[in-house]
UniProtKB/TrEMBL annotation:
Keywords: Glycoprotein. Residues 21-401 form the Carboxylesterase type B domain. It comes from the Eukaryota. It comes from Cimex lectularius (Bed bug). This is Carboxylesterase type B domain-containing protein. Pfam families: COesterase.
Length: 510
C-alpha cells in the first residue's frame, strides 16, 4: 500500500515536470486550459562574478537551468530598493505541450526598463494559447552593463553583448523546445525595442528576419548615450564610492554600486538644476548608463548612416506616449517653473532628436505647442511623446529597408490604475491590471496581431483603420506622411507635420 502511494506521488510530480537534458520544465496551464512547459533560469553564460564581472559574457556550454526566474540587479523606482541578483545571465523558455517533433515559430522578447513605474512581470499565458515558443532573457543593466569608462579595457555595451549571446544561444538550441530557428522574431518594448532594433540592424541582420518594436526606436534620444556623457556618469559614480580603477569597482558589492547609481540619478532629478539645465534632465530622467556606438554591436549612429538590414518590422505606438511624464511631475513635485524650464530647454537643444536643429525651427515648435494648449504640463507631455516616441518612429519607418507595418493602440487603462499605464504597453504579456471589458478586448486584439505577425500571416484582417477600430489600428501610412494622423488626432497631425517640414528627418553624415 505504501509503495502504491509513493508511486502515485512520484507520478503526480513527474506529470508536472519535463526534462530536456539537465533542464527541468514545469508544467503549467493557461486560463484557457492549454498546457505549456516553463523552463526558467537557463544559463546562457557563465556567472558574471569575480574575474567575469565588468567583462564581456563568457559562453556556458553546459545545458541546465535553475528552475526559477532570475532578474539582473536593478532598483525598483517605486520604493528605491535593489532587487535581483548579480549572477543573472539566464533565459526563460515557455513552450506549448506537446512540443515534441514540432517546429513552432519563436518570439524572443527583450525587456525594456525605460518606464519610471517599475518593471513588468511578464507572463506567457496568452501567447501559449497561440502555439508559439516564447523566450525572455536577463541581461546586465545600469553601471554593471553600460558604464562605458569602467569597461574600457573590456569593450563597451556589455549589456548588449549579454543579449547577443542569449539570442545566439536560442538560435542554436531552440529546436530542443519545439521551436524553429528559421522562424524567430526578435521584439521588445521601450528600451527593449531599441535594443532589438540595434541587433536586427547590425549583428543579427542575416540571422533573424522579423522584428517587433513597441514604443521604442533606434532614433530615440534615449536609445543611445553620448560616450562623453556615459563616461562622465561613470566618473561621478566613482567619486561617490571613492573608486578610480576597475579593481576598486570589483571590490564594491554589486548591490551597493547599483543603489548608489540610483541615488545619483534621483538626486539630479530632484535638484534645482532642472530650472537651468534641461539636457541634464533629459539624460538622467531615464537612464544615465546607456549604449554607446562601439563600431561592433552598434556600428554607427542611425542618424549618421542608413542601415541596409532587410527584415519585416512591426512598429507600435501608444496613442498618448507622453503620459509617462505625469509620473515624473507627480513623483518629484515639479513646479510650473520647472516644467516650463524643461519644456524650453528640450525645444532648444538636440535632446529631442539626438541631433541639433536650427534655432528658428525650435522657436516655431515652441510656438506651435503653446498655441495648442496653455497648460505647461500638457505641452511637456505632448512634446515628450512626440519627440521621444512618435518622431523617432517616423524616422525608423522612413529609413527601414524591408516590409513595415505600423500600428497604434489606446493606453487601455480605463480603470486609472497607475501600474497599468506601463503594463498596457504589452497587454499580451501581462495580467496584473484590474479586469475590465475594454482592456481584455484590446488585449485579445493585440495578442492576435502579435501572433499573426510571428506566424507570418496577413495582418490586414486584424489591423483596421482608426475609423473602424479605436483600440488597435493601422498607422503605416501616417508614419510616412503625418497628415494621416488627422483622423486620429488633429493636434498630433499638425505637430508632426511641422516636425517633418523643418527637415528634421534628414540624416547628417560625417
Amino acid at each position: 500500500m505504501q509503495n502504491a502511494v509513493r508511486l502515485t506521488k512520484m507520478w503526480a510530480l513527474w506529470s508536472h515536470l519535463q526534462i530536456i537534458g539537465d533542464m527541468v520544465g514545469h508544467r503549467r496551464m493557461t486560463p484557457s486550459g492549454n498546457y505549456y512547459l516553463a523552463f526558467e533560469g537557463i544559463r546562457y553564460a557563465e556567472p558574471p562574478l569575480g574575474k567575469n564581472s565588468f567583462r564581456n559574457p563568457v559562453s556556458d556550454n553546459y545545458l541546465y537551468n535553475l528552475k526559477r526566474k532570475v532578474y539582473c540587479m536593478d532598483v525598483d523606482p517605486k520604493d528605491g530598493k535593489v532587487f535581483g541578483e548579480e549572477d543573472c545571465l539566464c533565459l526563460n523558455i515557455y513552450t506549448p505541450v506537446p512540443y515534441d517533433y514540432k517546429k513552432m515559430p519563436v518570439l524572443i522578447w527583450i525587456d525594456g526598463n525605460l518606464d519610471p513605474l517599475g518593471k513588468i512581470n511578464y507572463e506567457p499565458e496568452r501567447l501559449m494559447d497561440e502555439w508559439m515558443v516564447f523566450v525572455t532573457m536577463s541581461y546586465r543593466v545600469g553601471p554593471l552593463g553600460f558604464s562605458s569608462k569602467l569597461n574600457m579595457l573590456h569593450r563597451d555595451n556589455i549589456g548588449l553583448k549579454d543579449q547577443e549571446m542569449a539570442i545566439n544561444w536560442v538560435i542554436t538550441n531552440i529546436h530542443k523546445f519545439g521551436g524553429d530557428p528559421k522562424k524567430i522574431t526578435l521584439g521588445g518594448e521601450g528600451l527593449g525595442a531599441a535594443f532589438a532594433l540595434h541587433h536586427l540592424n547590425n549583428a543579427m541582420k542575416d540571422k533573424i528576419k522579423r522584428g517587433i518594436a513597441l514604443s521604442g526606436s533606434r532614433f530615440a534620444p534615449w536609445a543611445f548615450g553620448p560616450r562623453s556623457w556615459v563616461a562622465s556618469q561613470s566618473d561621478k559614480l566613482g567619486y561617490r564610492i571613492r573608486c578610480k580603477d576597475l579593481a576598486c569597482y570589483k571590490s564594491i558589492k554589486a548591490n551597493n554600486l547599483v543603489h548608489e547609481s540610483y541615488k545619483m540619478r534621483t538626486e539630479q532629478l530632484d535638484h534645482g538644476k532642472l530650472l537651468y539645465d534641461g539636457i541634464l534632465m533629459q539624460r538622467t530622467m531615464l537612464l544615465p548608463f546607456l549604449p554607446v556606438v562601439d563600431g561592433k554591436i552598434i556600428k554607427y549612429h542611425p542618424w549618421e548612416r542608413p542601415s541596409d538590414a532587410n527584415f519585416n518590422l512591426l512598429l507600435g505606438l501608444k496613442k498618448d506616449e507622453g503620459v509617462f511624464m505625469d509620473e515624473f511631475i507627480n513623483r518629484y513635485n515639479w513646479t510650473d517653473a520647472i516644467i516650463k524650464s524643461i519644456f524650453n530647454s528640450r525645444v532648444d537643444y538636440e535632446v529631442m532628436t539626438g541631433k541639433p536643429f536650427v534655432r528658428k525651427g525650435s522657436k516655431e515648435l515652441a510656438n506651435l505647442y503653446h498655441e495648442e494648449d496653455s497648460l505647461e504640463s500638457k505641452n511637456l507631455r505632448n512634446l515628450a511623446g512626440d519627440g521621444w516616441f512618435v518622431f523617432p518612429a517616423m524616422a525608423e519607418a522612413k529609413y527601414h529597408v524591408g516590409p513595415l507595418t505600423g500600428f497604434m493602440f489606446d493606453n487601455l487603462n480605463p480603470t486609472g490604475y497607475p501600474p497599468c499605464l506601463m503594463q498596457s504597453n504589452v497587454p499580451f504579456l501581462t495580467f496584473d491590471c484590474p479586469l475590465h471589458f475594454r482592456y481584455e478586448q484590446a488585449a485579445s486584439k493585440m495578442t492576435r496581431l502579435i501572433s499573426n505577425f510571428v506566424y507570418q500571416r496577413d495582418l490586414s484582417f486584424e489591423l483596421k483603420p482608426y475609423s473602424k477600430d479605436k483600440d488597435v489600428f493601422n498607422i503605416t501610412q501616417a508614419l510616412l506622411d503625418p497628415a494621416g494622423f488627422k483622423t486620429i488626432d488633429t493636434g498630433m497631425s499638425k505637430r508632426m507635420e511641422k516636425w517633418k517640414s523643418l527637415n528634421m528627418l534628414s540624416l547628417h553624415y560625417h
